[in-house]
Amino acid sequence: MATISRFEDIEAWKDARALVKHVYAVTNQGPFARDFGLRDQIRRSAVSIMANIAEGFERKNSKELAYFLRVARGSCAEVQSHLYVAIDADLISKEEFQRLQSEAAKTGRKISGFQRYLKSSTQESGSQIRDFEPEDHYNPDPTS
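Structure (tokenized):
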């Protein structure tokens, strides 16, 4: 596995970012845009996935990262659950439902894979995530 020096390098975070973008696009349209409660809740759940991966990584401690990855995985399930409400209330099409469900499930699998990697690598070496200097995190291009 490649060296991860910033949370933006984590594949699960990248997938979560794509999911957030899609959730925002879908919830900005049609009847979903007018259901403020569900719209805001599914957005918060999706954003929570990204945020928890980033926060856990920045704690620079494997145990805390593992905890935040569990929270992020739970937020994936929350997005998936909200999607059932959305399709049952005719706020999204079957195609949008399936696409978002698939993206959320893929993100969840990536998080689970990262959890397994983290568990096996810390068991083998007993090591923690290495510390980083703040300048290591500078990303002048937020679209990458």
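The chain has one domain: 9-125. The domain at 9-125 is CATH 1.20.1440.60 (de novo design (two linked rop proteins)).
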